[in-house]
Design goal:
Number of helices: 11
Strand order of the largest sheet: 3-2-1-4-5-6-11
CATH topology of the largest domain: Rossmann fold
Oligomer: single chain
Number of strands: 14
CATH superfamily of the largest domain: NAD(P)-binding Rossmann-like Domain
Bound molecules: nicotinamide-adenine-dinucleotide, UDP-4-deoxy-4-formamido-beta-L-arabinopyranose
CATH class of the largest domain: Alpha Beta
CATH architecture of the largest domain: 3-Layer(aba) Sandwich
Number of domains: 2
């Protein structure tokens, strides 16, 4: 199968491109490199031994998207291309609506015109907001989004659902709700490339360990959790990448009972606190992470971890990597970045 991967040079996209190729399909990357570098494609090439096709351009541009679809024969789409900084989306909402909704609509329109059968959308656990209980099943209510970024994911899910149902079964689609992706490919050749000061915990940990940041601030240790710090479901990016292949193969299968649209959580089912994550990093790498405790970060959910049972049962996918392995892989990637930059 030929799989179009929008945002294929980004963090999750690059790992997914590798897994697509490893599973015998052909990845076709579309990216305008607004939050990635061409060196990610070099990394993919080094891992695979060949360079995948790349179409450089903006997915919100219908003319560009149409030109890609008319040059390639596309069987399935994984749509990663989006802006993802939650805090920035509060300060500058319009680019988030323009890009995250605009790119989805442009790609879906082309998919319908060209008869593409399968579509996987990058959604997020952020659609659950502050959950009533944990672990969170897909049946938990989507709370009113508290950020424009979160709203683009809720709206994106709805656009996809409506489009899939209106296509009379021609387009089958799934929204994958990712929990917290971390880690990097075992080769150390691809990984997360935060531009500027990282917002997320793990890149901040690795940059602090590398001496690029003076110290990490733990955002609050007075939460109602065992050690007072927030709890998340950290999933290795390679496990997450593989979940996309499993989902595509499910969408391509002949099962007539499949709904036109469905939603799956992608998480480990384990909750890890900020304090535990730092301790795991220090234990696995032998490198200390200078840190201090600061005030709570506005908008942080206290506890958020997945019930991955639906994905485990229906798609036979299960997370395999440990948090320890993710820390080792993140550190290898950070050190490679450090030595090569
Ligand atoms: P990323 O920024 O590393 O990758 C996104 C890629 O899309 C980048 O390479 C960027 O250049 C490209 N892109 C953005 N807009 C584009 C456009 N209009 N046209 C062409 N290319 C464009 O982000 P990521 O962490 O790999 O996230 C991928 C997807 O997963 C996003 O939709 C994100 O919202 C979602 N997601 C991410 C996380 C996370 O914590 N990383 C969690 C849940 C969901
Ligand atoms: C994890 C924990 C912080 C940095 C975000 C988005 C979410 C999804 C994944 C896209 C929290 C704490 C962090 C630091 C800290 N993205 N922390 N010091 O907030 O769970 O999720 O990324 O869809 O939508 O909101 O991830 O990595 O920012 O934070 O103490 O310097 O680490 O308070 O408890 P988060 P994160």
């Amino acid at each position: 199968m030929n799989i179009l991967v929008t945002g294929g040079a980004g963090y999750i996209g690059s790992h997914t491109v590798v897994e697509i190729a490893k599973s015998g399909h052909t990845p076709i990357i579309v990216d305008d490199f607004r939050n990635s570098r061409e060196s990610a494609v070099d990394g993919i090439e080094s891992i695979l031994g060949y360079r995948p096709t790349v179409h450089a351009g903006d997915c919100t541009d219908p003319t560009f998207v149409e030109s890609v679809f008319s040059q390639e024969s596309i069987d399935g789409i994984i749509h990663f291309a989006a802006l993802k900084s939650v805090g920035e989306s509060v300060e500058r909402p319009l680019p988030y609506y323009q890009n995250n909704i605009g790119s989805l609509v442009a790609v879906l329109e082309a998919a319908l015109r060209h008869g593409t059968k399968a579509f996987v959308f990058s959604s997020s656990a952020t659609v659950y907001g502050e959950p009533d209980s944990n672990p969170i099943p897909e049946t938990a209510p989507r709370k009113q989004a508290t950020t424009p970024y979160g709203n683009t994911k809720q709206i994106g899910e709805d656009i996809l659902r409506d489009t899939a149902y209106a296509s009379n079964g021609l387009l089958r689609s799934v929204s994958l709700r990712y929990f917290n992706p971390i880690g990097a490919h075992e080769s150390g050749l691809i990984g997360e490339l935060p531009i500027g000061v990282p917002n997320n915990l793990v890149p901040y940990v690795t940059q602090t360990a590398a001496g690029l940041r003076e110290r990490l601030t733990i955002f609050g240790n007075d939460y109602p959790t065992p050690d007072g710090t927030c709890i998340r479901d950290y999933i290795h990016v390679v496990d997450l990448a593989k979940a996309h292949i499993t989902t595509l193969e499910y969408l391509f299968s002949e099962d007539v009972n499949k709904p036109a649209y469905d939603v799956y959580n992608v998480g480990t089912g384990n909750g890890t606190s900020v304090q535990e994550l730092i301790e795991t990093f220090e234990r696995e790498t032998g490198v200390k992470v200078p840190h201090t405790v600061g005030p709570r970060r506005a908008g942080d959910v206290v506890v958020c971890y997945a019930d991955p049972g639906k994905m485990n049962r229906e798609l036979e996918w299960k997370a395999e990597f440990t948090t320890s392995q993710a820390m080792i892989d993140s550190w290898r990637w950070q050190r490679n970045l450090w030595f090569t930059s």
